[in-house]
Amino acid sequence: MAEPTFSVCVYCGSRPGENAAFADAAKAVGQWIGQHGGQLVYGGGRSGLMGTVAEATRLGGGRVVGVIPQALVDKELANRQCDELHIVQTMHERKAMMAERSDAFLALPGGIGTFEELFEVWTWRQLGYHDKPLGLLNVAGYYDGLLGFLQTSVASGFMGEWQMGLLHASTDAEALLRTLVQDAGPDQAPIPLRSVI
Questions:
Q1: Residue 26 CB burial class (10 angstroms; 0-12, 13-18, ≥19)
Q2: How many CB atoms lie within 10 A of CB 68?
Q3: Is-contact 106 8, C-beta < 8 A?
């Protein structure tokens, strides 16, 4: 397998959700990454949207890198078909490794784990710990309420428009992925996030 030309970290649910559009979107994201010679970095599970995006990437010809804490190996059903499966000790180690191995970040529908991962990597970006692009795929209106609340935060003076501008939100998976990969650029210097978080 050729060296991947880019690496995208995808945050998403370990459940499939109630709307088939969520799984369809995860599949489309994985297929796009695979078909464009990319690498998926994700939480290492094989259930829910996590499993869907990983399998679609693999079948599309892409590399799959999973990172999962030992305590979740059984709970999240670790995906042994990953090209690389890293079993780490803590969530902090998991998130730092995922971030270090990625050129860009994309959140699909998910629960509080997905929210936490997105907000943390967004916080790291605003603090200058990295300069990698961030995306939010709003599938079937799933994130409408969140995006509305974030605008309320801006209007209330707790966030600036520049912070909102760091997050690319879209309903179009292909266009969003293209933007993230383009914004990432080919020659980013790696940042040892574990030394600053």
A1: buried
A2: 24
A3: yes
177 pLDDT band, cuts 50/70/90, is: very high
Q: Give the pair of three-digit tokens for residue 179.
A: 């933007």
Tell if the pTM clears 0.85, that is, is over it: yes
Provide the 10 A C-beta neighbour count for residue 163.
16
Pull the structure tokens for residue 137.
Answer: 């795929």
Burial label for 148, CB within 10 Å (0-12, 13-18, 19+), is exposed
Q: Give the position of tokens 């990319």.
A: 38
Rounded to whole angstroms, how far apart are CA atoms 44 and 5?
21
**What are the CA-CA distances from residue 32 to residues 38, 74, 82, 150 (Å)?**
8, 29, 17, 28
**DSSP at 141:** G
| Torsion angles phi and psi, residue 189, rounded to 5 | -75, 135
